[in-house]
Amino acid sequence: MNLSVKTNESRYKKGNIRNAVSFALNSAASHAQQRFEHYSSICKSFEKKYKMTSAKFVEKFDAGTLGDEQEYFDWYAAVRGLNLWRERYEILSGVSV
């Protein structure tokens, strides 16, 4: 994969461009990690309460065997958030400038 920065390079020192991009990536990775940890905590609370892993919960939820309690929808949203932010964190933390 190639990444490119579109800027008027003559206006900035190359080191400053690299530093700005690196800062942005590190900030985004840190934010993604915080969101991932937030959703992970929510999922762990539901897992403890219902004595079921989030993976098993999603399997049952998708099969329609759990019912329509609001907490199930909250848990489902938390699992989706967990997966989204895990992926973003893994991608962003693997990028180097």
Offer a concise description of the structure.
The chain is an all-alpha fold. Helices cover 73% and strands 0% of the residues.
Structure description:
This protein is an all-alpha fold and 97 residues long. It has a domain at 31-93. It has helices at 14-50, 54-63, 70-93.
List the helices and strands and how they pair.
Elements: H1 14-50, H2 54-63, H3 70-93
Helix pairs in contact: 1-3, 2-3
- Provide the gyration radius in Å: 19 Å
Question: What is the helix tally?
Answer: 3
What pattern of helices and strands is seen along the backbone?
A: HHH
Approximate helicity band: over 70%
Which features characterize this protein?
elongated; 0% strand; mainly alpha; 97 residues
